[in-house]
Amino acid sequence: MKVRADRLEKDIEEINRFNSTPDHGISRSTFTEEYIGAINYILKEIEKIGADVRIMRGGNLRARLKGTDNNAPAVMIGSHIDTVFKGGMFDGIVGTVTSLEVLRAISENKIPHKNPIDFVIFVEEDGSRFLSVLLGSRIWAGKIKDEDLSKILDKDEISYFEAMTKSGLVPQDESILDGKKIKAMIEPHIEQSRVLESRSIPIGIVEAIAGIKQLEVTIEGVSNHAGATPMNLRNDALCGAAEIILNSEKLASQNGTSVATVGHVEVSPGKNNIIPGKVILTLDIRDRDDVTLNEITNRIINSIGPTCNNRGLIYSIKQVSYTKPVLLSKRVVEVLENSAKKQGINTLKMVSGAVHDSSVVAELTNVGMIFVPSKDGRSHCPEEYTDLKYIEMAANILLESVLELSK
Ligand SMILES: [Zn+2]
């Protein structure tokens, strides 16, 4: 039994019709008209399959295909359908359409399975409306309290609770996601990097999701006249920042696994004829291993002091966030690899540098992820593209793995 590529293609097209920026990529913000349009399309498809649909805590959607033992823990599959503003057609959608097609294939072929199979759509994964990523899965997992849903606001000060209620995705089941009731979860997703493409491997099996440390570094020097101040009498905060940025790049490059990025720099006063007196920069440091993540962060932090001292600058460092790395399930990784092998599909074990709803679920139960190549590594932009043949492979691996885990 195989999935049908024509249906995967149709689902991708149909879901992406719901888009608030048709001339610039795809924009489908949580609980908007477009979001609900896409949900309604998916609900119609689920109705044809005959799965039981429930709106769960936080507005997350769950469609359950009953098994022969409905007290057995469920095998969960799925992803998200919200996008960043002017994003692409595939982020979240790959996991959504492959999971939907797997549900169809199992149902129409009447394949017996013991465990219930849950197809889920998590709300607000990309944080485009409420500016906080993995919001739906964190609410479902009980990491965010009920009363806080009225305090989480979008840019127009509409609360999560209000937006959810207005959209009609009112929870029918407020229970907190219970790891004991989920045997395993698998999320297919685009890679969002160039590793698979550069090695011509069609499928990635994710072993770990990288941890992230985010820092904010403030560097203060002296603003002064750009013409009247000789080079040896300057305390230029931006020159110090430049050295810090290049040192971070060098230190993160040394161990082959860490990555460090300065994605945002604020320069004051920011005038073409004044020496910069103050710079605030962000540092985003990631690694698959917690010890290495802390080690590399410390090395970068320790390099900032000497740089600033040499240049007569003062500095302060604030830790903005810290997410530990998540190890995915060895058992699920093995099942995914075997399924791929049986179908003659070449795979690569890899680390996800981006976080996913799977990171949240992995704290509760066994989780695995399937990656498909992103053309030129592009994502979160209109150029985001994955060839249908890879999506079909991912769906077939998902199908085989779900049947293995639910028999
Ligand atoms: Zn995503």
TrEMBL record:
The keyword Hydrolase applies. It holds the Pfam family Peptidase_M20. It comes from the Archaea. Keywords: Hydrolase. One of its GO terms (molecular function) is hydrolase activity, acting on carbon-nitrogen (but not peptide) bonds, in linear amidines. InterPro entries: Amidase_Cbmase (IPR010158), ArgE/DapE_CS (IPR001261), Bact_exopeptidase_dim_dom (IPR036264), Peptidase_M20 (IPR002933), Peptidase_M20_dimer (IPR011650). Residues 211-302 form the Peptidase M20 dimerisation domain. This is Allantoate amidohydrolase.
